[in-house]
Amino acid sequence: MGFFLHSPFPSSEIYRTLPVREEILKALLNSYLIGFYTFDYARHFLSCCSRMLDLEYQSKKGYIGLEYCGRMVGIKIMPVGVHMGRLNLY
């Protein structure tokens, strides 16, 4: 199962004000792959996991992963958009 968040992930300073913050993080970490629109959104998510769940991420050769419940959860930056040169308007 994968999860992609197109909207911004809040910084840990804002995220920690949510009453169910840990439950949301744990639910997201049940995915095998979590995608974010920008590196900053992924960085905010990783910071929240580190500060609230005491999880550390690993980054090797462009791969970012978190170990959670005995398995690796992949973190990817996947900007989404429309390539205007490939869009046929007529």
TrEMBL record:
It holds the Pfam family Glyco_transf_20. It comes from the Eukaryota. One of its GO terms (biological process) is trehalose biosynthetic process. This is Uncharacterized protein. SUPFAM superfamilies: UDP-Glycosyltransferase/glycogen phosphorylase. Gene3D superfamilies: Glycogen Phosphorylase B (3.40.50.2000). It comes from Coptis chinensis. InterPro entries: Glyco_trans_20. One of its GO terms (cellular component) is cytosol. One of its GO terms (molecular function) is trehalose-phosphatase activity.
